[in-house]
Amino acid sequence: MKKRFASLWFPHLKTDWLTVCKPHLQNIPFVLSIAAQGRLIVSGSNLLAEQVGVHSGMAIADARAFIPSLKIINEQAGLAEKLLHSIAEWCIRYTPQVALDTPDGIILDISGCAHLWGGEAAYLTSIVSKFRQHGYEVRMGIADTIGAAWAVAHFGHEDIIINEQAQSETLLPLSPAALRLEDVQLKRLQSLGLRSIGSFSKMPRSVLRRRFGDSLLLRLDQAMGLEDEFVISIKPILPYEERLPCLEPICTANGIELALEDLLNKLCKRLSGEGKGLRAAELNCHRVDGKIETITIETNRATAQVKHILQLFVLKIPQIEPALGIELFTLGVSKVETADPVQENLWNNRIGLKNPTVTELLDRLKSRDANCEISRYVPSAHYWPERSMKIATKMDEVAAVDWQTARPRPTRLLKIPERIIVTAPIPDYPPILFRYKGDTYTIRKADGPERIEREWWIDPGEHRDYYAVEDLQGRRFWLYRAGHYDGQADQWFIHGFFA
């Protein structure tokens, strides 16, 4: 695919934003100020102040000499970065690859995107008109390279689309500053009378390198397409992602569901073709007002079944607030795993965890309640009870060891054993009664002791002597004494309950 890039430049980014927020400033010359080296400096000026001669970098005292009634506004810390990041997120509706071009620009990788708007001319018009409608002055350029797009956006006379054949022809008459050079290099070029890119672009490279360093040649090559330059997107590009622009904003739950089904059909077709399934996915709904509504789902097993995944998302559609409408949907998969081909087991009588309907039910239960936690436990290679099991990372995980069945184990194990008061006749005999949470339990049957040594290579401590006991009402408990008997009643603990 042929690479195409777009550069957006906002000459009055910060002051345009203030004018949008405070419309009464529209007809007033004003500047933003910051403190630097013990004095106030102009960090941004609106168009009215700029037309009189006030510009960024000028001292506030000098600016007041031009306009005595000049309004001064203290700039918020990090304002430009916040505005650019917000604009970049909004531009994701036009392309998934958007990068910041500080302090006042955005770079878009528009490869393969413009045709969705009817071509690059319509694409450029759509973006520029949207910003100007919102009150932002913007210049835009489109070219085969980032450098060329940036050059025409900042130094062209109008919004320009450069074709491959006209790239050199368009760049050569421009100022050397269009190559994004350092101030030292620009002053040196100016002192030598080199006032356009064409005046030095054909000079021997050895001469240019000796006089101006490698950075000038790098910028020249990047602009001309002889050196690669890449967009570092504000959001990582997911390998499995689908986008759906809308001709008209969507405001209804039914419309969102139809859009989601269309995206899932495309996405799951790709996943199935590669023998994969999703475990986690995210739907981003880009609203007309610039805000993004997001819902996420997770599955217990890798799946590419459209019907099942759609049901999970449908449960969360009521969480989406479309406001004036949604103009772009993006569906991305953040976690992918290899999926078992369902057709191979179509005729098998699968039960338990091998039945896909079980995991589909668990997925739906979890989607209905965000606080619902469903876990499956598998045995772990430890004798110490607290470490003898672990939470499975996926529903069909195969354990490395089998469950221990040589001695009885409780169906419910306390996370932290709780102290109890026990009456026992003589050492190493099972208790005859115990008190737990204010109640007294008389024991009629007991089995034990079963000694479990502490895993000394993990942590030090005493061994435990466990007893499985049953009280007069038939309730069964798992008790233990910590260490050897020393006549103390506080050595005993309750650790679990049998069914």
Automatic annotation (TrEMBL):
InterPro entries recorded: DNA/RNA_pol_sf (IPR043502), Rev_trsase/Diguanyl_cyclase (IPR043128), SulA_CellDiv_inhibitor (IPR050356), UmuC (IPR001126)
Residue ranges of every copy of the UmuC domain listed in the record: 19-149
GO terms (BP aspect): DNA repair
Domain of life, per lineage: Bacteria
Key words, A-Z: DNA damage, Transferase
Molecular function terms, GO-annotated: transferase activity
One Pfam assignment: IMS
Coiled-coil blocks: none
CDD domains assigned to the protein according to its UniProt record, in alphabetical order: PolY_like
Keyword Zinc: no
Record bears the keyword Cytoplasm: no
Bilayer-crossing regions: none
Sequence similarity: Belongs to the DNA polymerase type-Y family.
Designated name of the protein: Nucleotidyltransferase
Organism, as annotated: Sphingobacterium siyangense
